[in-house]
Amino acid sequence: MSTSSSPEEREAEDKAAKAKEQEEQSKLPYRWTQTIGDLDITVSVPANIKGKDMDVKITKTTIRAGIRGQEPLIEGTLPHPIVADDSTWTLEPTPSGKDLSIHLDKSNKQEWWPHVVTTAPKIDTSKITPENSKLSDLDGETRSMVEKMMWDQRQKEMGKPTSDEQKKMDMLKKFQEQHPGE
């Protein structure tokens, strides 16, 4: 009996996993997005809330945010360390109230987070494509490595040689041209 599933089955499993992931994330009292270098959390709060009413504490490895005197809306241990001094929060008016916006600056700029706090449901970070982050945000070396990986991935999908395979074929061809009949 074969254990490998067909592309259709894999796609259906991926869709089901994605739907479950979206449902879990939608139940959280906050929304969050990330790039490879930082993470942004948005929490809706009532319009009458002011900055002084907020209880927000961000450390290198933990976060707590909520309205003073109430249960925190988000609290826990971060999956990876952040640069606390470069992480900020603001209250911004919205049509339906206010949003508490929290910006976390990741210490490791090469890592996707599966969740904001370790007690929250995880997302599948293997499904994140580098296009979600702006390639221009990456340093030169990382950017060229990511671009090469993306190019190689596209080549593979089209059944064409990757850059390394192409290089080897070019070297072999050059060798054959320089040493005919060997």
Provide a descriptive summary of the structure in words.
By secondary structure, this protein is of the alpha+beta class. The chain has a domain at 29-109: Immunoglobulin-like (Sandwich), CATH 2.60.40.790. The chain is built from three helices and seven strands; from the N terminus they run αβββββββαα. The strands form two sheets. It has a four-stranded antiparallel beta sheet, with no helix packed on it. Strands 3-4-5 form a three-stranded antiparallel beta sheet, with no helix packed on it.
Helical residues, percent = 25-40%
Percentage of residues in DSSP E strands: 15-25%
**Element-by-element helix/strand order:** HEEEEEEEHH
Strand order of the largest sheet: 1-2-7-6
Q: SS-based structural class?
A: alpha+beta
CATH class of one domain: Mainly Beta
| Rg estimate, integer Å | 23 Å
Q: What is the mean pLDDT?
A: 85
Ordered list of secondary-structure elements with their pairings:
Elements lengths: L6 H21 L3 E4 L3 E8 L8 E5 L3 E6 L6 E4 L10 E7 L2 E9 L34 H18 L5 H16 L4
Antiparallel strand pairs: 1-2, 2-7, 3-4, 4-5, 6-7
Short overview:
This protein has 182 residues and is an alpha+beta fold. The chain contains three helices and seven strands.
What features would you highlight for this structure?
182 residues, alpha+beta, Immunoglobulin-like, 30% helix, elongated
